[in-house]
Write a structure and sequence with these properties.
This protein is α+β, with helices and mostly antiparallel strands. It is built from five helices and eight strands. It has one domain: PPM-type phosphatase domain (Phosphatase 2c, domain 1, 4-Layer Sandwich). The chain is 25% helix and 25% strand.
Length: 181
């Protein structure tokens, strides 16, 4: 998926970081390009950086992106996906504390708020997604349904990325391939 996005955006003048993750009953699998973060945060606020081996460059849109895959066993807690607009300006300790406090929506609100300047602006683009991972009997993990407001902090302005994101969601929901424009 990330290589397809890189190919589609190449030569259109923009480059970006990207991260994709798939959560099933006991594992998270994904890939990243550049400096977005995927962290597993335990209920004890211990963090495992799933994207520790990623490469900063080349970026998506360069036509040369090199996604780095990750995989980990889930044991409850929360999965945090975030751009460097969060991780560059807030300590890991504070991120872990805020990411585990309250509902996932409140945690995402808190994380986004903690990087805002007094003027209300941001030093960098910020996108935060938090997934609650519930321990089920038999050591299985259940991902609760996403509340509709979970993605309100993700502001994508690049039309191609919006279309790609829309097509990916549609293909997941319908089990049929997306229609190309």
């Amino acid at each position: 998926m990330l290589l397809e996005l890189d190919e589609e955006l190449a030569g259109h003048g923009g480059e970006t970081t990207a991260l994709a993750a798939f959560v099933d009953s006991d594992r998270v699998r994904g890939a990243s390009v550049s400096d977005s973060a995927a962290w597993l945060i335990s209920p004890a606020r211990e963090m495992t950086d799933l994207t520790v081996h990623q490469r900063r460059k080349p970026l998506i849109g360069s036509g040369e992106a090199l996604p780095v895959e990750f995989e980990a066993e889930l044991r409850g807690g929360r999965l945090l996906l975030a751009t460097d607009g969060l991780t560059k300006y807030v300590t890991a300790e504070r991120i872990c504390a805020l990411a585990t406090k309250g509902s996932v929506v409140k945690a995402a609100d808190s994380l986004t708020a903690c990087v805002r300047l007094p003027s209300g602006g941001l030093q960098d683009d910020v996108a935060v997604v938090i997934v609650g991972l519930l321990i089920m009997p038999g050591s299985r993990v259940r991902v609760p349904p996403f509340p509709p407001t979970l993605f309100k902090h993700l502001h994508i302005t690049l039309p191609t990325l919006e279309r790609f994101s829309r097509e990916f969601r549609v293909s997941l929901l319908s089990d049929s391939p997306p229609q190309r424009d």
